[in-house]
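Team,

Forwarding the record for the chain on the shared tracking sheet. I've put the sequence and predicted structure together so nobody has to dig through attachments.
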Amino acid sequence: MNRKNWTLTPYFVIFSLLMFAMSFISVRYNPYLSMAEFGVSFASLIFVIVMNIKFRKYIRNIVKSVVRNTEGTEHIYLENFSFPVVVAGAQDDIVWCNSSFVIDICKGKDPVGNDISHFVLGKDLHRFIGGKPVKIRLGEKYYRVYGNAAGESTVLYYIDDTYYSNLEKEFNNKKASVAIALFDNADDFDTDSDGETQGEILLAVEKAIQKWATDTNSICCKISSKRYMLIFEERTLKRIIEDKFKILEDIRDIRLNGKSATISVGIGRGKDNLRESDFQARKALEMALGRGGDQVAISVNGEYEFFGGVSGGVERRSKVRTRTFAENIMGIIKSSDNVILMGHNFSDLDCVGASIGLYSTISKSIGKEACIACNINRSLAKQLIDDSINHGGLSNAFITPEEALKKINEDTLLIILDTHISSFLESEEIYQKCNKVIVIDHHRKMVDFIKDALVFFHEPTVSSTCEMVSELISYMGDDYLSSFEAEALLAGMMLDTKNFVIKTGVRTFEAAAYLKQKGADTVSVKRFFAGGIDEYRDKSKIVSMAKISGHNAIAFAEDDMNNIRIVSSQAADDLLGVEGVYASFVIYKIDPETTGISARSYGKVNVQRIMEELGGGGHLTMAACQIKITDKYEAEKMLLSAINKVGYVR
């Protein structure tokens, strides 16, 4: 039975009668035409009568089937149900409904013959059968819809749930979330201004946070000179999220001597009580600070959502803190049988340079057996590794991950360098097998970080892991640090700072001066960055083929290029030299199933956030990702979507 056909029966009858009238009129003019019209009219009338009989039989069978499958009822009671009831036929057309359905749901209009999908919001009818109700909203009302099968038809019962749904909604909207806000760069104003001015900055930040609480009808409590606790209702938090935490911009507008104030906020959301929300808020704040500060981190059932994070990070480290970490790390090393140093896969100069520096201190100054687990053939710092083995006196330092696995026992210490994500490691199997782990990294903190480390030395505002290791070595013992090893550390710093152009602080130059004191030669370091003429041609080709979209440069590397990772990252660096380019992206094929993207910026675009959208990570100014996708142009579409989502810093 085609839905809606039978509703046209009256029109077909009228049409047939008109045709009969026309056939009688046509007798005067053409008897043959009149006979033909009479035959068509008669056939049309018979067809309508037959279809009407079939439909009545169809309805009768469905109603009988419904009655048989509706326990304890007879068909007369279906109409008398106080709640809406509707019967859908085999073709999902409405074949019957009671008056409550017409009045409450259809607003007095007869729905018979219409598609049932309008009243189940397009859901499959099978979802309503089986005992569990399906909650839907029709207009301003909520219903819990139950269903049962009746032969080929389906009976749906609509129970008005508006009162309880609104009650539940109101309860959820009033659920409290705890937020902890920290004036994260207060020390910058503490050192650069007199006490009176610094007090004015603190007061300005406090006023902005208090105004934020007042404007959002929330509670604010000052718990220290730089820390505040706020309590939001869920309905308020939703509005704040839609506004993308404008408070971050308001705080940045507080400036002194060219410096902007920044805050970090951690929010615990969706918990049943305030204690749990407070605990999650503290963890979220730690995550926000680990990602460089000047942002909001919201913790919802173990998952994190981030807002802001557009500044270069707030430096909060001190030499006392570094010395404490150095003493703890040295104590763990001394209590271990042997030490394995390992970085991320496709290791670079920062990763390898830091490993060489620590290897020197552990094996020479502390006197413990150590090795560096590295897949040399896949390393992006192969020139440095080759020079270490051939000229640097480190012929026994580098071993393969497979060889490192054989050296692991219960007291083996694994030191992870330049990453804090287990899936990024040179060998995740080594990490899983070692009982003692130390992490030393400078990348902005990601959600799935290594949580079982004995020491988690993480400084997202530092230029490089080599800078961190240089400071550690100065406290752990540097008597045997050779000039070559100092050059390896300096090379890592030069790589991640783009020759001391970006992400540099006072401590960065102090570390560089320390390495210079130890014999590092900047001219010698440059040889680690040298490439062949073919690589230079490939890099130039990528740059020349780049296209500018807004303030972004996007380029593709050809699949047959040698050392495609190195060439792509170098091309991304060079593209930043184009006028008007805030960020550069080079897309390349890693293997037939994987596409990689190298991303760079000078700070106006947070490429770390963009790469995180695509499953990668890194820094504000330097990041990358790998996408399991075969088509590079599809990867470009995904990249543009991520760029539009994150936007610019200012």
